[in-house]
């Protein structure tokens, strides 16, 4: 939610800020703005809407400042209008601030500052920050403005409640950029005589691979000479940057029309990477191995004596959690519940002993998920041993806030995902659940060694099977998708392990094409939703081999009898299914237990091609942001 970027160094800041904002635009695109310092003056340019509006405003605008901050906004407080765009300035135009997060007590602060005579020009929560800093600064000695600014920010952050990451400029400090973090991501980048900050490393990788993730309660002072990190009491901290193994091309479209399409096509490689990382190639049932078939390296305490697993997540990650539940129950034999993190926090179920809590979030920054995990951790901390907090994170961003809150993480290794619609990260999350379920199944002997090996053999075939879909079905799915460009409603049906895939297919379509879509367990249609069906509502049914195949086909027939156009996700060799469906999204024949990963691919392509045909901004759908860092 919102992206912030900052630069201090030897190059023209504006270019670096704009390039950084381009790479952060996936975090919000309601407005954008930058501020720079030249000759003891703040120059700020802001524009409503997407970044190109700001770029247009900056054309023929010469600004050679070497210090600046930028922001791309996902509106929370105040409409997406220019006067609400960041940066926000104090009344003297001395302090400029960009913020990602929410200042929960902004109304109180605003009232207090208004009483002191300050004017407000926006409806945002953020505007209180520059005014507050300026108010504190006026009472500090002015002989050393650099020192005073750090001190003022140190005092100001103590008055701010909520989750925030801020970057601050002072017109009187042309050699200093100060940033602070409290529960919203902020990464520092280290170049040669130049330093950067950004909400995500995607904005840093074109310039440097040396980064430092600021932690909660930390302030950093960036100057052309280096970076100093402090805690909120302004005690200096010693921090060591780390090296990223990403290159700038990782965050480019590489010839694809959209990032989402590129990311869909990256899935065979992602699955290969995950298998190579986690699956033990040497493991054979016949050797009666005493070690796990997977290399998760989890602390055995996490899974010992387990009686219950609870999964907390949002959106697509919640769908991955539903597949996870199926695997953990059916393979590892552990009762598992899946909760929307946003609901769990306010109506947590009664505590159960020997419970593993799994937080699933590709970004590792989703506020709802982090808050629910924190709540769960806190309510267990003071209880006896059986209830101790055992928390596992499944994330694509091991450097994220999630990683600092959990006992262990499984890194999903999907590589950066820029498209707002999650695709490859979903597949990687689902794979993480296969590995976890196999690990626990092995430890608890809930599956025979032969059954484990059988699943491992199936997993190894997935990359080639996904490639087959992409190569052989890509054009057919695109052509089919074009027929639905004007459709207004879709129903997606699945059962068992593929019910979450029906939900995911519907979510993908809704979020990028703005077509209303619902996912249902196929057997539930007759209990109400079947009333929705007529010739104008296509039904996509996932009919993969296995225990519910015939049931799904029967449910699909029921829809056909109500004139619905039937589209089947089904194996190439399934003649029964082929004769029932009007249109086919063909996939290779895989066993039921492995079918979600192949079944989701054509649904991603269908959603993508419908949205692209409708001429929509697939990578940045309206009202959404990639990383939802507000509750
Ligand atoms: O980063 P997370 O996995 O925690 O994100 C959760 C959801 O916000 C995310 O999956 C969202 O639903 C996507 N837009 C789905 O494509």
From TrEMBL:
Residues 298-446, 480-621 form the SIS domain. It comes from Synechocystis salina LEGE 00031. Pfam families: GATase_6, SIS. SUPFAM superfamilies: N-terminal nucleophile aminohydrolases (Ntn hydrolases) (SSF56235), SIS domain (SSF53697). It is found in: Cytoplasm. Its EC number is 2.6.1.16. Keywords: Aminotransferase, Cytoplasm, Glutamine amidotransferase, Repeat, Transferase. Catalyzes the first step in hexosamine metabolism, converting fructose-6P into glucosamine-6P using glutamine as a nitrogen source. The active site is at 2 (nucleophile), 626 (for fru-6p isomerization activity). It is an enzyme of class 2 (transferase). Homodimer. GO terms for molecular function: glutamine-fructose-6-phosphate transaminase (isomerizing) activity. Its main location: cytoplasm. InterPro entries: GATase_2_dom, GFAT, GFAT_N, GlmS/AgaS_SIS, GlmS/FrlB_SIS, Ntn_hydrolases_N, SIS_dom, SIS_dom_sf. It comes from the Bacteria. The keyword Heme does not apply. It catalyses: D-fructose 6-phosphate + L-glutamine = D-glucosamine 6-phosphate + L-glutamate. This is Glutamine--fructose-6-phosphate aminotransferase [isomerizing]. Residues 2-225 form the Glutamine amidotransferase type-2 domain.
